[in-house]
Amino acid sequence: MACQRAPVEAAFQYSSDASSRTGLTALADGVLLGNEAGAVVRLDREGRPVWTARLGREVAVAPVLAGDSVIVGTVVGELACLSLQDGKERWRLGGEPPVLAPPVVDDAGRTVFLVAPDGAVHALAADSGQARWKRPAPGASAQAPESAPVKPLEPQVSVAPALRAAPVLVEGVLVVPLASGLWALDAESGEPRWSKPVTDVVGLDSERDTVFVATRPGQVLALSVKDGSTRWEQRFADGVTGPPARALGALWVGAGPTSLVGLSTSEGREVARVALPSPLVGRVQVGLEDLLLVPTSGREGRLIALKAPGWTPAFTVRADTPLRTRPVVRGPLVFVLGLDGRVLAWRLRVPPPA
Predict the structure, then answer these.
(1) What residues have CB less than 8 Å from 7, skipping those under 6 apart?
(2) pLDDT score of 352
(3) How far apart are the C-alpha atoms of 339 and 295, rounded to whole Å?
């Protein structure tokens, strides 16, 4: 048998010295991550730490970029702005709500949006931390539009350790998943635009004027950003295990118990289904143009590459730690974050012509 070069080779691994559930923030020349020890680390493409900032308490969700700054929060309600270049602190706020849902920054890098555990939404100036507006849990002080009534949103609750799905910002509208419904707020003022009685949201994604919503019980929806009207709906009897992600012309979700399902973004019909060795609880990613990279959450932490258009396995690599967040791709390099806090990277090889 003739020898062939492996389609993937290990590039590096780096330990942040504590477990992590943040996922990776992509940079032009590397990645950012946080961990349960309160460290925020910037790595370059070779896995070398550029800087480390220590906040003292767990960073549970991924840092976000706002121009040349990094915005990061902790589970005890501290919010910090760090220099992307060297990690030095630019400002810090204390006494904020615990940061258990990933922040969102507008395209201009001017405003960061935070969702508190009680459903309140805060908009802060990225350069100073000053409040632009704050809304209590929508519905607590304002009526929902008559066209989209929902039950009252959640009252004050104690802080839970569970992470929450991230909001999405589309065409000036912030769509926020809360425990008692889905709300759309005007990004400039915080005023409610519409609401929808969709609960137990696993995650959101968006495309132009459409928001895709997946719920743990198995409902997947495409909604109009303008008014929240339903464009299509799909249901999975065994529930949904992971958030939706657009890739290679389809919307991909983890379906129970251990399947990857691709849906048409325009109609919601099923266009692909692949059995996985363990559930997909993160998001898929694209590598080398036609590879769908699928992180799985089993103990072995397998990263599976499926080749378009037939979605046949191209290769599988094992991380030996659960993979629960989306990979980051930079050229031929693929970075993943393991639950144990290790960042692992592999170099993909372009297969030779058939």
Answers:
(1) 305, 314, 315, 348, 349, 351
(2) 55
(3) 12
